[in-house]
Each structure stands twice: as structure tokens, then as C-alpha cells.
Design brief:
The chain is α/β, with parallel strands linked by helices. The protein is built from seven helices and eight strands; from the N terminus they run E-H-E-H-E-E-E-E-E-E-H-H-H-H-H. Helix 1 links the parallel strand 1 and strand 2.
Length: 243
């Protein structure tokens, strides 16, 4: 499709899934919005998974959705403008059903395929996409809900990873901000839904992990290994939080 007269360029969409219980449901929602959606499933190692997503598509710009994303069915990809020069990725916000936060966590992404060749150049980046060249663009619009709270394990894992990263400081800035402190507080103290207490427990465990690991890149890399996260969850042996 031509970009003339404000028309959006041709873009494909990829769903990245690992073991998310709601992946099939969210895949169907994405198909309803984008018409066709490619999928990469079960790849261990987030850096490798993201690179393979870029290899799946034939368009320079492509949408990337995590399997926890319940896309807003009113989202119109045809109105999305091209990425500006030097911007490798645009991120839409999501609503967090567990603590009510609205920010880029689990958000829909518009990515530049050629930028993914550079992944891995920031080996210490916990957020793998922070290794893309250039500076990402964050937009205030909300693209859906990040519905990660499908089981105790999945909900704990989300709280653990996100709060470890928030504690360390964002990979894009590497400094703790007032906004990061606000998000950490919400993850630790608010927990709606049947597994909300598991999000709070994951937040506490993630903060402890960050304080222990500090700048050890080998340890930090474990945050991108879902098998290690599941083993760590089992080793901690938590009883039902608050039970």
C-alpha cells in the first residue's frame, strides 16, 4: 500500500507466545483487528524470539503483540502513521487489570524490521528491545489490556520480571524515576482479581532479586528465561499469598 496522501504502508502482524493460557483467545482478537496474524510460539530466550519474529515478516514495519495482549477491537491499524526516521519502535500503552496501571507494559509495538539486526548489542539489557538502535517512541494511546493474570504462576512471573526491571532502573534510562516508584508501589500493594495476591508476591520477589543481582549481567539474563523463572517460582515454594 502506498504511503501517499497519509495512507499507512503495508504491515504484517506477529503474535509472540510462549505458554500463555489465553494466547489462542488473544490471537483470534488480533485476527479480527489485523485480518491476518503470523505467530511464533514456544521459543526459549527472548532475544532469539524477537529476532525470529522479524524474520517471519516481509514488510519493513510490522506490528508485534505479546500473547497476553487483549487488543482493543476498535484499534485501527490503517490510521497508524509510519515510524519517523531513526525510531526503531513505537509502543502503545495497555491497561493492567491487576493494579490499574496504564503504561507501556505488555503494549502493542510497531517495529522496524531492519533494526532487529542490531539486537544483542546491549547484552546487559533486561528489556531486550532496549538494544534496538535509536530511541523508541511511546504514545499515550491505549491499545488494549495486558491480561497476564491467568494463573498463579503466570501472574507471579509478570510481577517478578516487571518489578525487577523497575527496581534496577529502566534499560532506556538506567535511572529510577518518580514514575517508576509509583509503579513499584502499585505492583506491591494493589492486586485485583483472583490472582492479584500472586502479582504482589511476584513484585516482592522481583525486588529482592534485583537487589541481589545488581549489575551481574549473567544473573540479569535469567529474567529472559521463562524456564528459569518457573523453576525459581517452584523453588520459592510460596503458599497461597494471604492464605
Amino acid at each position: 500500500m502506498s504511503t501517499a496522501a497519509g495512507m499507512a504502508p503495508a504491515r504484517e502482524c506477529v503474535l509472540l507466545s510462549y505458554d500463555e493460557p489465553r494466547a489462542e483467545r488473544h490471537h483470534r482478537r488480533l485476527i479480527g483487528v489485523f485480518g491476518a496474524v503470523k505467530r511464533l510460539h514456544g521459543v526459549r530466550g527472548m532475544g532469539r524470539a524477537y529476532r525470529l519474529c522479524a524474520e517471519l515478516v516481509d514488510t519493513e514495519e510490522f506490528f508485534l503483540a505479546d500473547a497476553d495482549l487483549a487488543i482493543d477491537t476498535s484499534f485501527d491499524p490503517g490510521t497508524v502513521t509510519p515510524l519517523p526516521a531513526g525510531v526503531p519502535m513505537r509502543v502503545w500503552r495497555t491497561r493492567n487489570p491487576v493494579n490499574g496501571l496504564v503504561y507501556g507494559y505488555g503494549g502493542l509495538k510497531l517495529c522496524r524490521r531492519s533494526a532487529f539486526r542490531h539486537l544483542g548489542r546491549v547484552p546487559s539489557a533486561v528489556d531486550v528491545l532496549a538494544g534496538l538502535p535509536g530511541r523508541p517512541e511511546f504514545v499515550p494511546a491505549v491499545a488494549g489490556d495486558t491480561a497476564f493474570d491467568a494463573s498463579p504462576r503466570h501472574t507471579w512471573r509478570a510481577g517478578f520480571r516487571e518489578c525487577a526491571m523497575l527496581t534496577r532502573g529502566c534499560d532506556y534510562r538506567r535511572v529510577r524515576s518518580e514514575e517508576a516508584e509509583h509503579r513499584l508501589h502499585a505492583w506491591q500493594h494493589i492486586g485485583h482479581g483472583p490472582f492479584g495476591a500472586w502479582a504482589r508476591q511476584g513484585a516482592a520477589d522481583g525486588i529482592a532479586f534485583a537487589q541481589w543481582a545488581r549489575d551481574n549481567s549473567t544473573v540479569w539474563a535469567l529474567l529472559n528465561d521463562p524456564q528459569w523463572l518457573d523453576e525459581h517460582f517452584a523453588q520459592l515454594g510460596h503458599a497461597v499469598p494471604g492464605g
